[in-house]
Amino acid sequence: MIIPPFLTNYVQLANLAITIIASIVAYILTPIYFGQDYFLRLNIYFLVASIFVGIVIWSYNYVLSDYLAKINLINSFGLIFICGISAKLWIFLQPDADLLGLFYISFTFNVISALLYFSVHKHIRIYQMKYRGRFGIIFFGILVNGLALVLGITKGLEYEKKFGVIFFQSYYSFFTASLLDFMVGLWGGLQKHQPRHIELSQIGGQRQPAHSGCPICIEKFSETEIPRILKCGHTICQKCARNLKGDTNKIQCPTCRQETIVEGSIDSLPKNFAVLDIQHENEQV
């Protein structure tokens, strides 16, 4: 399976990088070309945006039921699409905006879209999109996105400052591409993530695991990739367990989504010696 599992992931990861770079450039150039008053407003804008982002990210720590999580994820795709359409329409209301004005507009829509993306990113390794067999829906989504782009650019050519309008129409077409994920998910394409399980093969007359590895990173368990047992009984490597835990005291199993409360460090989780023994025996064969 290709990772990330959603089309939206690729677009929004690029969006995050572009937004950060544009913010740094604006922060450097604003006091030079626009003066201290505009620079002060930019700092206040960044401060308010940072507080808002922090509050929204904190709210994502809540764990939803499987049904609500899927609804929330599908809605996130739809809202990112609406965010892209709104940006395309908004630029027609501000066609004469200068570069700083364009930055404020794009930064606002990019931050909103990125916050919606955090909800998508949270569900990686939990859900995945099945695009195969849904070519009609995909074709319709591509057709709508393409027609919206052509219409936006055609309309933008009528304005005196064509650059801003055409840029917004082109750039935010990547956002409206989330319509594909929204439609495929709405028509049953959003499914539980299926990690690569241990395959069994016949070795020496006994059934042995041909691959004993972490279901997240697919790395084989070893003394460096230490297998740790979660409360639900599933095993993941120590590195992935640490990444899933983050700054919290709990880990959500990527296979069954059951939570494991970690008391102390990741080292407190039981080490799966049985898996290591099997891995060692396979290496000896």
Automatic annotation (TrEMBL):
Gene Ontology molecular function: any one: zinc ion binding
Q: Kindly provide the name given to this protein in its UniProt entry.
A: RING-type domain-containing protein
Q: Which UniProt keywords apply?
A: Membrane, Metal-binding, Transmembrane, Transmembrane helix, Zinc, Zinc-finger
User: Is DNA-binding one of the keywords?
Assistant: no
Q: Which SMART domains would you find in this protein's record?
A: RING
What domain of life does the native source organism fall in?
Answer: Eukaryota
Enumerate the PROSITE patterns for this protein. ZF_RING_1 (PS00518), ZF_RING_2 (PS50089)
Transmembrane stretches in the record are 12-34, 40-61, 73-93, 99-119, 131-151, 171-190
Domain RING-type residues, every copy: 214-257
Q: Which Pfam families match?
A: zf-RING_5 (PF14634)
